[in-house]
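Q: Sequence in, structure out?
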Amino acid sequence: MAVIRANYELARERAAALLDSQRITSPPVKVHEIAGFLGLNIKEARWPQPHSNEIQGYLNWGTKEIVLNAEDSFTRKRFTIAHEIGHVKLHEHDLENDPDLGIMFRQNMREVNPDHREREANYFAACLLMPSNMVRRFYSVMGIADLATMFIVSESAMSYRIESLKKEGVI
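A: Exactly. Output:
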């Protein structure tokens, strides 16, 4: 089975357009408010074992709800919200045809997800929560921990984002 390439450029463009439309120019990005603007409600749930540590959340396209794992940290929940918003902005047509698309299983950030839509939604989430122009503005004067605090993301997410921006030649 061939791996479909993720369209990271589209994910970056859609995240930037959403930030522009909301006039967000400084961290932290208020993903709860963005979800509300898009007509999405957010709720939390607890999953029974063995799934409680596997599922971060999902998008119920029919009810326009983002359902978060209540056991997750606040920063993980923010990333999950941004990820599900990514599905809305990138995969609305696919969501109509595949309501299970919005289920996000926990995976190591450094592992490559075989589903290009999941990779796109993850990249969208990183671009939305940690926009390159904002990270670049503060990167030279702040460490990873302080940046993570400012952007309200985990240190591992910020580290991964900075590595990615370095590879892209942004910082």
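The helical segments are 8-21, 31-37, 74-97, 116-129, 132-139, 144-151, 155-167.
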